[in-house]
Amino acid sequence: PTFFGSFDRFFPPKLLRPSGIGFIFCEIRHRLQIGMGLPLHRIKEIRVLYRQDPLGSSEIDFDSPDTQPEPSGHVIAARITSENPDEGFKPSTGAVQDLIFRGSKNVWGYFSVVSTGGLHEFADSQFGHCFSFGDHREAARENLIIALKELSIRSDFRTTVEYLIRLLEDESFAENRINTGWLDRLIAERVRTEKPNAFLAVISASLHLAYQELRTVLHQVVSELDRGQSCNMGHLKNSVTLELVHQNVKYRLEVVQSGESSYFLLLNGSCLEAEAHRLGDGGLLLSLNGSSYSTYSCIEATGYRVIIDNQTCTLEKEHDPTVLMSPSPGKLLRFTVPDGGHVTQDSVYAEIEVMKMVMELRASESGCVRHQKRPGAQVAAGEQLASLELDDPSRVRQAELYTGDSRPAWPARSRTPGLRLNQIVERIVQQLKSALQGYVIPEPNFSEWMVQQVETLLVSLKDPALPLVELKEMMSQVSGRIPTLLEQRIREQMAKIRQQHHQLQEEPRHRGQLRVLAQPGGLQEPPDRLPAAEKKFVQSDKTLLDDLREALIRLTTLRRADNASVVLKARQLLLIYSQTPAYELRHNQVESFFLSYISSGNSSYLEQLIQAETSIFDLIPDFFFHHDPLVRIAACEHSVLRSCNKFVLDFRFLLPSSHPNR
C-alpha cells in the first residue's frame, strides 16, 4: 500500500522528494520502480495523487502543478532497534522472552524475530517498525506515545522504546522545531530517559536475586528428599546477603524471607518490609509502603537490568579492571595492541563485530594486555577477551559503601496504608504464623518487629468497628445470593450497631465512667446514662449467666434437622454450666495446690492437677502472670507435663524357635 500525506520519521527515511506540504512516502515496490529508472510521472499512484490519468504518460510539473495534492492525514513512524541508548546506541543481540504490542485502527506495526524467539546474530539491529496515523500531527504523536508506552518487550538486550518516548515528549518535537541536527545534539548532550528511584531499583534487584536463590535452594532440598537421599539441612536458609553497585555507590544488604511472599531487607541496621508475588510471565509484583510495582529483572554480563513499570535501570557488579570482557555477543575482529603490549586508559585495545557494525573496546585503566582469545573467534556477552596487568593498582576507583539509612522501618503503632481493619488483622496473624514456622529475622530487629506486630494486633482487635468491617465484607460476597428480606434485615441491624458506635464516640465520658467502676472503691451500681450494651458487662455473673441460660434453652427447642448441631452444642453448654463450679472457686483451689506444692516440695499436689479429670485449661494461663515467680514456674511445669503423654514400652528379644539356645 501507499500513503500520501505528511510524514515524520526519526531516522533518515527513503523519501521521493520534498513538497510544500510534507513528503511523499512510497513502499518498496515504488522504490524499485524508481531505482530501475522509471520517471515519477509514469508511476500510477503518483498520477492519481496529482489527479492525472492513471494510464497516461504526460509529464507533471511538480514545482507548480495544476492541482496541489491534498494529504488525508499525518503519519509518524518509529524504528524499534536492539540498541542501548545509555551506551551510545551500541547494538546487541539475544533472546526475546516476551513481546506484546497492542495495535489499533490508528497504530500498527510489525516485528521480526527468528523462530526461536531472538534476533539473528548478524542481522540488522532493527527488529520492529511502528506507525501512527492521525488527522493532524499532534494526534499522530499522541497515538504513538500511547502505543509505545503499552509496548512490552522483555529481552536479553536493551531497546530504544524508552528513548523514543522521550523524543516524542520533547518540547521541540511537539512544536515541530526540529532539524537534522536536533537528534545529534540530544545524543551529544547525553540526554537520558526517565529512571526509577535508585533505592527502589536496589530493592527490586535484591528481591529478584534473593527470590531466585531461595527458590533454587528449596528445590534442591526437596528433590533430594523425594529421591530418598539424605541432605544437609544447613543448606536450607531463608536469608541472602547481596552487594549491588549503582552509580558508583555500593549497597550491602541482607534479604530475609519472613513468609510465603513477605521479605525483610536489612540495610545498615534498619529494616524494611516488602511483599513479592510471582507473576505468570516471570516478573515480581512488589508491594512496598502501600504502593505496588510491576518489576522484571535480567542478569547481564556486567550487572543486572531491572525494569520497574516500564522504566529501566542498570545495576553494576563489582568492577574488576584486570578482566577485559566483551560487552555483547559477536565476532572478535582484531587486537589493536600486541600480546604483552601496553595500553593507556580509555584507549582502544580490540575491535568486535556486532550486528554488522564494528565496535571499539577501550581499557578502563593503563597496563599491559595479555590475549586470551584469537582474532576471528565468536565471543559471548561477558566472555573474557584478555587480561590487563595494571601499572598502578592503587589508582583503581572503588565504589563507595552506602552508609545512610533506608527509611523509617518501625513507625510506632502504624497501620499498613491501603488496608482495611480486618485485612490488617489477617495480615498480622499470617505473619505471626510464619514466624512460628521459622521465618524469623535476625535480632534485635525480630524483637522490635514482634512487639510492634502484637501491639498493632491488640489495638485492631479492640477496635469496635472490626466486626462491622468483617460483616460488611461478608455481605458484599453473598449479596444477591441470599433472600432479599434476610439481607435487608441484616443491613438494618448493621446500621443500628453503626449508629451506636457513633454515639459512643460522641460521648467519650461513658468510657471514663466505666474505668471508674473497675477501680477499688468505685461505683457499685452502673449509672442510668450508660448504654444498655455496657450495662451487661458491669452486672453480676449470675445475671449474665441467667441470660445466657435462657438463650441456650431457646436454642434447644429448635426442631429442624439442619439445626441439630446447634441444639447439641447448646445442650452441652447447659450441662457444663450446671456442673462447673464458679471461676473464682476453681481458681482458688488450683492456687492452693500450687502453693502447697511449692511449700512442701511434694509432687503429689502437682500430679493431682495433672491427672484431674475436670478441665482447668481456662485457669492455667492466668497463673503464668502470677505475682509469685515460683507459682509461674509451677504453672509452666504443669502445662508441659499435662501436654506430654507417657508411654511404657515392654521390649523383648525372642530367639527363633529353631535356635539351640532357646
TrEMBL record:
Domain named Lipoyl-binding is located at: 315-389
* GO molecular function terms noted in the UniProt entry: acetyl-CoA carboxylase activity; ATP binding
Q: Which UniProt keywords apply?
A: ATP-binding, Ligase, Nucleotide-binding
Biotin carboxylation domain segment(s)? 1-188
Write out the GO biological process terms: fatty acid biosynthetic process
Q: What SUPFAM superfamilies does UniProt report for this protein, alphabetically?
A: Rudiment single hybrid motif (SSF51246), Single hybrid motif (SSF51230)
Top-level taxon: Eukaryota
Spell out the protein name for this chain.
Lipoyl-binding domain-containing protein
Q: Which organism was this protein described from?
A: Macrostomum lignano
